[in-house]
Design goal:
Length: about 200
């Protein structure tokens, strides 16, 4: 038993196995957001398809080989809207030529970020409840549905001058095989079975 990222259906309020998630290509957006560097006029730009998860960010990561950001590694950025201080870290997971080369790390809401978080001992901040509403960790967005929160967050970022651009983006979106609700990756305490030794016995 342990806390790991699982596929969660907010409508059925249940965990789903990977086999129970159906993926379809959908039209989405890439929101480019400025994250200010503390005590500096500089900022990093991150691109995300799920702005509502930024409420749970605990770091911004860059590739160790990326010379553009070398001088910022170890510094602190101010997480927009919540004004939480989070570190700039290096990790090979970041692709230098994808997006801006800076990745927001949200260990409680993304399977890849979860692994990065473990490698760097980052805090895990869950910002949604079982119905995909923003919980008490989401500051002023508490109580909003994930898509309502997205809309409000985008409005607030625009007002603060921190929304740089919005690009159209096609991506695979996972949905529940039973009710077709978009699945939310969240951290949850569950039981897991290691299949390899069982398969060898079989």
């Amino acid at each position: 038993k342990g806390s790991r990222i699982i596929n969660w259906c907010p409508d059925c309020t249940t965990a789903l196995s990977d086999a129970e998630v159906e993926y379809n290509e959908k039209d989405g957006k890439f929101w480019h957001i400025k994250y200010p560097i503390k005590d500096s006029g500089e900022f990093l730009v991150i691109a995300t398809t799920r702005p509502e998860t930024m409420l749970g960010d605990t770091a911004v990561a860059v590739n160790p080989k990326d010379k553009r950001y070398k001088h910022l590694v170890g510094k602190t950025v101010i997480l927009p809207l919540l004004n939480r201080e989070i570190p700039v870290i290096e990790d090979d997971y970041v692709e230098m030529d994808f997006g801006t080369g800076c990745v927001k790390i949200t260990p409680s809401h993304d399977p890849n970020d979860f692994e990065v978080g473990k490698r760097h001992s980052l805090p895990e901040i869950l910002v949604m409840d079982k119905n995909a509403r923003i919980n008490e960790n989401g500051g002023q967005y508490q109580g909003l549905d994930r898509y309502e929160a997205r809309k409000k967050i985008i409005e607030d970022l625009k007002e603060l001058g921190l929304l740089l651009e919005i690009r159209d983006h096609k991506h695979n979106v996972g949905s529940c095989y039973r009710c077709n609700t978009v699945v939310e990756p969240i951290i949850s305490a569950q039981w897991f079975v290691k299949m390899k030794p069982l398969a060898e016995e079989a």
